[in-house]
Write a structure and sequence with these properties.
The chain is an alpha+beta fold and about 210 residues long. About 35% of the residues lie in helices and about 35% in strands. It has one domain: Roll (Pnp Oxidase, Chain A). The chain contains 7 helices and 8 strands; from the N terminus they run E-H-E-E-E-E-H-E-E-H-H-H-E-H-H. Strands 1, 2, 3, 4, 5, 6, 7 and 8 form an 8-stranded antiparallel beta sheet that branches. A hairpin with a 5-residue loop joins strand 2 and strand 3. The two termini are about 35 Å apart.
């Protein structure tokens, strides 16, 4: 992605925090004609030894995406963090224009399919724990035949992160705007308040 130096973050902690807080990702592969094939789905981030990152998820067996990943394992997973309009009113200088602030992570990945029931169960357990841990006991208590039917309808995958880009676009290059921007975002929508929190995290805390 377009990544000016002032917005690029090499801090894996920032990227991991965004992926965990906003796990609903866009997975982009290519179909048999070389055209982008896109699935929107939640992904679980696993951190391994030496900082290795893996994304775990599943799709419906009826979704051709898993077949495309099997044929062409490299893909792109995109995580969208909070985003919001930036008003030119944050500047004292009237000769300014509107913009948009946002946080995003792009992961270049290599896919390995998970088709055995035990492997798919493990992925589901992690995803259930992420979003509704209380449901895990209900799922595990289901009749074995029902579980097998449900598992037969999905294909799991492990996406090894080969490289990632983390973009934190928060007007870092215009420090004269930070106090007013932080004040506006702190009083705004949930996304705007989240951006205000990231400003503080990055040491851009306002001095109103």
């Amino acid at each position: 992605m377009y990544l000016p130096a002032q917005f690029a973050s090499d801090d894996r902690g920032h990227a991991a925090a965004l992926m965990r807080a906003h796990p609903f990702a866009t997975l982009i592969g290519t179909d048999d004609d070389g055209f982008p094939y896109v699935t929107h789905l939640p992904l679980h981030l696993r951190e391994g030894a030496g900082g290795a990152l893996t994304l775990l998820g599943h799709c419906a067996r009826a979704n051709a995406h898993w077949r495309h990943l099997q044929a062409r394992p490299e893909a792109l997973a995109v995580f969208h963090g909070p985003h919001a309009y930036l008003s030119p009113s944050v500047y004292a200088d009237a000769q300014r224009v509107p913009s948009w602030n946002y946080l995003a992570v792009h992961c270049r990945v290599r896919a390995a399919l998970v088709q055995d029931d035990a492997g798919k169960q493990a992925i589901l357990a992690l995803q259930i724990a992420d979003h509704e841990s209380a449901y895990l006991a209900q799922w595990q208590a289901q009749a074995p035949d029902f579980q097998r039917r449900m598992l037969a309808g999905i294909v799991g995958f492990e996406l090894q992160v080969l490289d990632l880009q983390c973009k934190l676009k928060l007007n870092q290059h215009r420090p004269e705007s930070h106090a007013a921007m932080h004040a506006q975002y702190s009083a705004g929508t949930p996304d705007e308040r989240a951006l205000a929190e990231w400003m503080q995290r990055l040491g851009m805390a306002a001095r109103e």
